[in-house]
Specification:
It is built from 1 helix and 3 strands. By secondary structure, the chain is α+β, with helices and mostly antiparallel strands. The protein is elongated.
């Protein structure tokens, strides 16, 4: 009776095992430096000005009250706008 219980317990523990961490690199358009300094001229403009920009694929465009993760990535571009759709902040992180 104990052997099936022990085997079931070991199988359950094995299912909880985490895999090895991924060594995948970020997409090529996100490697290197953040482009926030070159976009500072957009601060104060309507967010529609972003439509003509070629932004990295992982760019976060965040409005008031929108949720976003708090993880830090030095190569990620973040653009924040206010309730009037005016860009108020462009930064990396």
């Amino acid at each position: 009776m104990r052997i099936p219980l022990i085997c079931a317990s070991l199988l359950a523990l094995a299912a909880c095992q985490q895999g090895t961490p991924s060594t995948d690199r970020p997409p090529s358009d996100m490697q290197g430096e953040c482009i926030a300094p070159s976009l500072q001229t957009l601060v104060g403009q309507n967010r529609s000005a972003l439509d003509s920009q070629d932004l990295p694929s992982a760019t976060r465009i965040v409005g008031p009250g929108m949720a976003m993760t708090m993880d830090y990535r030095a190569d990620r571009l973040n653009i924040e706008y206010d309730r009037n759709d005016i860009i108020v902040r462009i930064y990396c992180g």
